[in-house]
Write a structure and sequence with these properties.
This protein is mainly beta. It has two domains: 6-107, Golgi alpha-mannosidase II (Immunoglobulin-like); 111-394, Beta-galactosidase, Chain A, domain 5 (Distorted Sandwich), CATH 2.70.98. It is 3% helix and 45% strand. The strands form five sheets. An eight-stranded antiparallel β-sheet has the order 9-10-11-12-13-19-24-23, with no helix packed on it. Strands 14-15-16-17-26-22-21-20 form an eight-stranded antiparallel β-sheet, covered by helices on one side. The longest helix has 9 residues, at 387-395. Residues 1-19 and 30-40 have low confidence and may be disordered.
Length: 403
């Protein structure tokens, strides 16, 4: 028997089949359901395994059905990292990785990432999901964001003016990452004297049958043109049937001296939901992992938060999940009933009227901090989308054993 090649919190053990194939078991963390039954509906999760490179082509096959599962491969040092989408269940699921001397035929479906004029278009199965816009504004942002019903789930303004939409807070650009005070510079409000996050380069633009990937580097510049810090952001958009899933990871580096994020509510990883989803002016609701709802969710700490409501008479929701390895997990939420929805781990005093310690944090010169979030755009309410279980698939992902 070959010794375990890759184990991610797993005790499952399986056998190597042949030099040309590996068998894998995907084990899910134990979950409790009413009457011991798995509820109806499908939850999907990206699964990855690092395997020795044995050929140019890789096929993942389900041992349950014998069918080929769409998969995607990236180099992982001397090994290959194979990724596919698995259904989240209580039982372990078996897969077989088969190797070939040459790559298989490209899948015409999947996630396509294509550079356009000042933006990167991301399509899923040929339909637009979002555009990563990196020019023409004081920060990069994603607009529009199309949900699982085929309709936009974020506000159009300020990128596009639509009759009947609110036009407050023009710096709320659909989906973005920035902060209100970084070493004395305001990157949040897009003021004339404020800072700008300037796109430097793309490190990776990846298309594939399972996910698309955008890796970009940016410089955070003061109004006077001085570099404050820089970031590397990694966006992975997955092709799933039960909703839209995007992982957003960003590392801030103090490349030009210490960098201080000051305690303020104005930040950080933000979304402005569609006007019809708002609590105040629409028919939406907010709910977090701790049970806080609507206005009571503002300034509270929680592992995830969900904002749902109607879009053209269909209920959809946007959930942001904070990963346990993210800085200051679980984060606090600057989530407003008028449609702002943001994760902010620095505004501790601002959110509690000074009842707890200052949340400011200084990255030492040469240091860095990393934030990791998953966006899950789903149909239905928080309960209907089974957010608590979906979060388990992110925070405690399926364990993969290879032999």
């Amino acid at each position: 028997m070959r010794e375990l090649v890759s184990v991610l919190r797993s005790t499952v053990r399986i056998l190597i089949c042949a030099l040309a194939a590996l068998t894998l078991a995907v084990g899910w963390a134990a979950q409790t359901h009413k009457n011991g039954k798995v509820p109806d509906g499908i939850l999907e999760i990206p699964v990855s395994a690092s395997v020795p490179a044995r050929g140019a082509g890789v096929v993942v096959r389900s041992l349950d059905t014998g069918s080929v599962v769409p998969s995607q491969v990236e180099q992982d040092g001397a090994d290959l990292r194979v990724t596919w989408i698995s259904r989240q269940t209580r039982e372990s699921r078996g897969y077989r990785i088969e190797f070939a001397s040459k790559p298989g035929r490209p899948d015409p479906r999947g996630v396509r990432v294509k550079k356009a004029d000042g933006a990167v278009d991301v399509t899923i199965n040929g339909e637009l999901f979002t555009r990563y816009v990196y020019t023409g504004a004081p920060k990069p942002y994603c607009y529009p964001i199309i949900g699982p019903t085929g309709k936009p789930v974020t506000r159009n303004f300020p990128t596009r003016e639509v009759e009947g939409e609110s036009r407050d807070h023009p710096h709320h650009r659909s989906l973005w990452f920035t902060f209100g005070e970084v070493s004395g510079v305001d990157f949040w409000t897009e003021s004339a004297a404020g800072g700008k996050i300037v796109h430097r380069e793309f490190e990776k633009l990846v298309s594939g049958p399972v996910y698309g990937r955008i890796v970009a580097r940016d410089d955070w510049m003061s109004g006077e043109g001085k570099k404050v810090c820089e970031d590397t952001r990694d966006l992975r958009i997955y092709r799933t049937a039960s909703g839209r899933v995007m992982d957003f990871e960003i590392t801030i580096r103090a490349t030009d001296g210490p960098v201080t994020f000051v305690d303020t509510k104005e930040g950080m990883f933000g979304i402005r939901v569609a006007c019809s989803m708002e609590v105040n002016r629409g028919k939406g609701h907010i709910e977090n992992a701790r049970g806080d709802k609507d206005g009571a969710a503002w300034g509270k700490q929680a592992e995830w938060c969900d904002y749902y409501g109607p879009v053209d008479d269909e209920t959809v929701g946007i959930a942001i999940m904070d990963h346990p390895t993210s800085f200051r997990y679980p984060t606090y939420w600057h989530v407003r009933t008028y449609g702002l929805f943001a994760a902010n781990p620095f505004g501790l005093k601002a959110f509690t009227n000074g009842r707890i310690e200052d949340g400011s944090y200084t990255i030492p010169a040469g240091g860095e901090i990393t934030f990791r979030y998953r966006i899950f755009i789903h149909k239905g309410t928080t309960q209907e989308a089974r957010l608590a279980e979906a979060y388990q698939g992110y925070s405690k992902p399926p364990t993969v054993a290879v032999k």
